From TrEMBL:
Role of this protein: Is involved in generating a small heat-stable compound (Nod), an acylated oligomer of N-acetylglucosamine, that stimulates mitosis in various plant protoplasts.
Family: Belongs to the polysaccharide deacetylase family.
Ranges that cross the membrane: none
Coiled-coil intervals: none
Protein's UniProt keywords contain Signal: yes
UniProt keywords, alphabetically: Signal
Protein name: Chitooligosaccharide deacetylase
Entries under InterPro entries matching the protein: Glyco_hydro/deAcase_b/a-brl, NODB_dom, Polysacch_Deacetylase
Domain NodB homology: 18-244
SUPFAM superfamilies assigned: Glycoside hydrolase/deacetylase
PROSITE patterns: NODB
Keyword Kinase: no
């Protein structure tokens, strides 16, 4: 099923002022150990973009349980191939420079199958590795649109208060330099603007590119206290609502 060209950001369910989506990338242990319990304690649901090669066998049951509890599992490809320019020269990693579009789409298709084996769902969304959509220096987003492999693609930076391209959704990022106040301020701006805010995290209280665990907890507490005006839901749920 190919996504529509654009969907409108708002109005949101129950007259809420904004929709906030909490996304977590890279299949990190701190997400299972810290982020998921914090979300569950606050009664909130998040979207976790998993890298197939980073999922350890002993984690599969935990990811499956998270999906059963209403969290979304998303596609972050099998190997997370990024352009060489995204990494310091000393790091030996798979790079998308050696891919072509056919290879990248095949990897996305394979990761969809892995996710279905975990959560039982036939459709998933994608977060592009490193927030870009290049394979061998060529933009694979047009081919991905035509393929119907994913329902949405989260890639670009920024927030949106107007029409959205489901295949190039904006996202803002926080790391250990961000306080709870900083993150709450971003949500408050989205509430004033009335749009969609997708927040991206990697590690939570651990791992890399991490956000401080207490700051993350402050954000969740604020969101829990303001459910009358802020809708927090997994990204697939929000996009399905916006496309209605």
């Amino acid at each position: 099923m190919q996504a529509e060209a654009q969907v409108q950001a708002g109005p949101w369910p129950g007259g809420r002022k904004t929709a906030v989506v909490l996304t977590y990338d890279d299949s990190l242990a701190s997400q299972l150990d810290i982020a998921l319990p914090a979300l569950d304690a606050a009664g909130l649901k998040g979207t976790f973009f998993l890298i197939g090669s980073q999922i350890r066998p002993e984690q599969i049951g935990r990811w499956r349980a998270a999906a059963a509890e209403g969290h979304e599992l998303g596609n972050h490809t099998v190997r997370h191939a990024c352009p060489k320019s995204s990494y310091p020269p000393a790091r030996r990693l798979d790079t998308s420079n050696s891919y072509d579009m056919e290879m990248m789409l095949a990897e996305i298709r394979t990761m969809n199958s892995m996710l279905t084996a975990i959560d039982g769902k036939l459709q998933h969304g994608l977060a592009t590795p490193c927030g870009q959509h290049l394979a061998g220096g060529e933009d694979y987003l047009p081919a991905l649109r035509a393929s119907g492999l994913v329902r949405y693609t989260r890639s670009a930076d920024g927030a949106s208060d107007g029409a959205l391209d489901p295949m190039n959704l904006p996202c803002i990022w926080f790391d250990e330099k961000a306080s709870g106040v900083d993150m709450i301020a971003a949500v408050e701006k989205a509430r004033r603007d009335g749009g969609l805010l997708i927040i991206g995290f990697h590690g939570v209280g651990g791992d890399y590119l991490k956000v401080n665990g207490e700051a993350h907890a402050q954000l969740l507490a604020y969101l829990k206290q303001n459910t009358a005006t802020i809708w927090v839901a997994p990204l697939m749920t929000v996009m399905d609502y916006a496309a209605r």
